[in-house]
Specification:
The chain is built from 6 helices and 2 strands, in the order αααααβαβ. It is mainly α. The N terminus is likely disordered.
Length: 111
């Protein structure tokens, strides 16, 4: 296993599964809080994921679930204080709920 990748927090589900000796499907079930996993297996997977620096890929999760958890916002100008303040508040609220923001700036475009 590539230790550099693990140290930098880029471990994949595959590495977590290999560390624990379970399938990737089991790791996925644990990380998605499926109730049909024994507490012993759940604990081992969570410990391994933490030790390896596993970080969930929201892109991969979106593909698997069909939910992007992404909100698009269109503003006429990002350099105006009102819209900048508005975007700051929106971004803060979305992050707190686990959403990403895609910003569209329509400045200079004709309707």
């Amino acid at each position: 296993m590539d230790e550099k990748r693990i140290v930098h927090g880029h471990a994949r589900m595959k590495e977590v599964a290999a560390r624990v000796g379970v399938s990737e499907a089991t790791v996925s079930r644990v990380l998605n809080q499926n109730a049909n996993i024994s507490s012993r297996t759940r604990d081992r997977v969570l410990v391994a994921a933490n030790e390896l620096g596993y970080v969930r890929s929201f892109s991969a999760s979106a593909l698997a679930s069909g939910r992007t958890r992404n909100i698009g916002v269109l503003v006429p100008a990002v350099n105006r204080w009102y819209f900048a303040s508005l975007l700051e508040g929106i971004t803060h609220a979305l992050r707190a709920e686990g959403y990403d923001l895609t910003l569209y700036n329509s400045a200079g475009e004709t309707p």
